[in-house]
Design brief:
single chain; alpha/beta; UDP-N-acetylmuramoyl-L-alanine:D-glutamate ligase; nine-stranded mixed beta sheet; 13 strands; about 35% helix; about 25% strand; globular
Length: about 350
Amino acid sequence: MERISKKRFQKASKSLSNLKICVIGDYILDEYLIGHVNRISPEAPVPVVWIRKEEIKLGGAGNVIKNLNTLTTQMVVMGRRGDDTAGEKLENLLLEENVKPIDLLLMKSKEVPTILKTRIMAGHQQVCRIDREEILSIDSEEEDLLFKQIELKIDQSDAIILSDYDKGILSPSFIERVTKFCKSKEKIVTVDPQVSHFFYYRDVTILTPNHHEAGKALGKVLESDEDILEACQSITEKISPQALMITRGEKGMSVYLKEDSSIHHIPTVAREVFDVTGAGDTVITVFTAYHAAGLSEVEASIVANAAAGVVVGKLGAATATVDEIEEKLNELNVWLKDE
């Protein structure tokens, strides 16, 4: 069983508020129209949902921001929004997560609306989802504009998270440009990749795909520990990340280190799973923050795994506080014996 020093965890936790982490990716608005059904429409055989409550929340890369705010780190937001009312709501929600106006750097697009996903809910049951989006990769002018912002913010950023929802911001050319630049600056770069862009993320600090995504990228089904090890070796040969974290559902996660070709299997920690929504965002956020705070890749993975165990026990795209993470680590008894 992988273990961690309690003193090192607590020291890293105390330094989180001094960190600034830049999140580049696809920002989404999640709208919920919540009501109940008591009849079928006379116009068509569909339920009539009587809306009693409306909620709007951050989604996509915005969920990474919510997780960072819970950890009390400082944040830089980079991406794209539409020149519309939804875009104004998106920015307001980001400001509510303690993003400073000077660090809120969303390009306004006349061509692409703010991504809005509306879920019609009857009780806890989703009746349907309505997506309002236009998936269009950033053009060369937008890429140059965004890259200039990165150049301005890179020296004050302790780490960069690339949150790829395949909505157009992280195009292949932009990925290559950003990763090369960050490597030249010796910055931590963590990636939650899309399968379509998987092998563009070269020389990053860590990729955090789930086993389905990693398997799809390689054209294989990954089930056993041996499958995972072979997949990690193959991916590392192709794009050379410093580490790979493959999340495996009920089997926990596996972390592969390029430096010594070692693999570390960390068992799942959730006793009850209510909702896995946003768990991947929590994992990459907590890993990045704690690695930037001085923990090794394996130590930060243990902490991220515990955080995932916290959030899947909550409903919706939840977050985990430092106290909740420490409580989960206490419960798991993962501390080194000399602590």
